[in-house]
Amino acid sequence: MRVALFVTCLVDLMRPRIGFAAIELLEAAGCDVTVPASQTCCGQPAWNSGDRAAAAALAKKVITEFDGSEYVVAPSGSCADQIRNEYPAILAADPEWHARALELSSRVYELTDFLVNVAHLESLPGNFTGSVTYHDSCTGLRSMGIKEQPRALLAKAPGVELKEMVAADECCGFGGTFSVKFGEVSAAIAAKKCGNACASGADAIVGGDLGCLLNIEGKLRRMGNEETQVMHIAEVLTAKK
């Protein structure tokens, strides 16, 4: 299978090792992976902020960059949702681009969904040992149906013990521009999420969207917790002892 990786701008800027971990997982599943060098942002921040022109321009850029790829995979439910579900709406007024957006949307997957349901990954390249609790990101869960896929992958790791937190599927408070516009509300939601995660007793908080993880880790450290790890699932599945 030929897979083009949509790295996401947050991964590229803040934690590139997630991108490399995603490539390692895809290659372990037998995929031939390419990473279009000119890619930047999926346009979600612009779209969420009401800047339709910028969102449309970025949508066209992504469609052009990933044209011809058999599959497009992103280590982020929110970015995958933007490309798969929002691009056709953003470009609805332009028949040519709308058709291209629909064609691309049929090939776009979130990383864990692709590994479980398309590539059928059986053997993990990592050997992480420890307990984890999983945070279900809002967009990945509600728009992409990402729930059982990451847990199925974690279950394949012999050294991983999953300790489910209370309200694992509740928001972490990030919400993209929500955390900027409504800082106090976001902080309160994040505090609740961190409390639930810590109460699970897990060594690490794991998720599939770096935006959520940055928000959770930032709040966790401000609360004085320096011990609990905060990791993307791709990092867990490729971690070496």
Report on the architecture of this protein:
- With 241 residues, the chain is of the alpha/beta class.
- The protein folds into two domains: 2-117, Rossmann fold, CATH 3.40.50; 130-238, 3-Layer(aba) Sandwich (Rossmann fold), CATH 3.40.50.
- The chain contains 13 helices and eight strands.
- The chain has helices at 9-14, 17-28, 44-48, 52-65, 77-90, 95-105, 111-117, 138-144, 148-155, 178-181, 183-199, 210-222, 233-238, and strands at 2-5, 32-34, 71-74, 108-110, 130-134, 160-162, 204-207, 229-232.
- The strands form two sheets. Strands 2-1-3-4 form a four-stranded parallel β-sheet, with helices on both faces. A four-stranded parallel β-sheet has the order 6-5-7-8, sandwiched between helices.
- Helix 12 (210-222) links the parallel strand 7 and strand 8 (229-232).
- The chain is globular.
- The mean pLDDT is 97.
Question: Which architecture of the largest domain would the CATH scheme give at its second level?
Answer: 3-Layer(aba) Sandwich
Question: Could you describe the largest sheet, including whether it forms a barrel?
Answer: 4 strands, parallel
Supply the CATH class of the largest domain.
Answer: Alpha Beta
- Total strand segments: 8
Query: Biggest sheet, strands in spatial order?
Result: 2-1-3-4
CATH topology of the largest domain: Rossmann fold
> What's the helical proportion of residues?
40-55%
Query: Could you say which structural class the secondary elements and strand pairing correspond to?
Result: alpha/beta
Q: What amount of the residues lies in strands?
A: 5-15%
Shape: globular
- Count of separate DSSP helical elements: 13
User: How many angstroms does the end-to-end distance come to?
Assistant: 29 Å
* Secondary-structure element string: EHHEHHEHHEHEHHEHHEHEH
Radius of gyration: 17 Å
Mean pLDDT: 97
Tally of domains: 2
**Uncertain residue ranges:** none
